Amino acid sequence: MAEFGCLYSEVLLTRNAWEKRKLGEVATITMGQSPDSKNYTLNPQDHILVQGNADIKNGWVEPRVWTTQITKIAKKGSVLLSVRAPVGEVSKTAFDVVLGRGVASVGQTDFLYQYLITLKINGFWLRYSTGSTFDSINSADIKDAIIFLPEKNEQSRIAKTLNCIDNLIAATQSRLSSLELLKKALLQDLFI
To answer: Which helix (H) or strand (E) holds 183?
Structure first.
């Protein structure tokens, strides 16, 4: 239980006067715009292109496609939100990236990252989602989304606690993967 120590020291149990705000009032929203496909490359020296969920793994951008054309960008540390099927997936980027039309950049705070995950879990974006071929949301939907914010210090403490849990989950998944590989190796050595 010692590894959970960071949780207990950071959790703030008060919900002092959380302020109702529009997401567009507290975060810079940048909707993606896809470059021309002729500019797509597999060259890691070019600009990383995030088109949608195919470019996301475990909540982080994982470079897959690059482009020579810069349309809309998100800076390293930005929170990304998928705006096309599936709508509402949330990730972060450890790189400056070019935003394709399947994603939007929504600020850069860990609190917003965690808040947007909550909206996804609660199916918030489904009420705005439209489209006959695949679901999508637009800029106005994102900017006008009502959120509730505590004061900055409480935002920081909440984000720190939830980030701690994310780190514990990632460490546990890594250990699980290692154990699965060990078992597979033992099975092959013992039975083959």
So the answer is: helix 152-191
Contact 149, 16 (CB under 8 A): no
Residue environment code for 139-161, b if the CB has 16+ CB neighbours within 10 A, otherwise e: eebbbebebebbeeebbbbbbbb
Give strand pairing partners of 105. Answer: 30, 80
pLDDT tens, position by position, 33-78: 999 999 999 999 999 999 999 999 889 999 999 999 999 999 999 9
Residue 179 falls in which region: left (phi positive, over 0), alpha (psi -120 to 50) or beta: alpha
Q: What b-and-e string marks burial along 56-77, b requiring 16 or more CB atoms within 10 Å of the CB?
A: beeeebeeebbbbbebbebeee
Task: Quote the CA–CA distance of 75 and 99 in Å, as a whole number.
Answer: 10
Q: What is the DSSP letter of 84?
A: B
Q: Dump the DSSP string for 35-55.
A: PPGGGEE--TTSEEEE-SGGG
CA distance 66 to 89: 21
Nearest of 116, 84, 99, 13 to residue 48 by alpha carbon: 99
* The token pair that represents 49 in the structure block: 């292109």
pTM of the model: 0.84
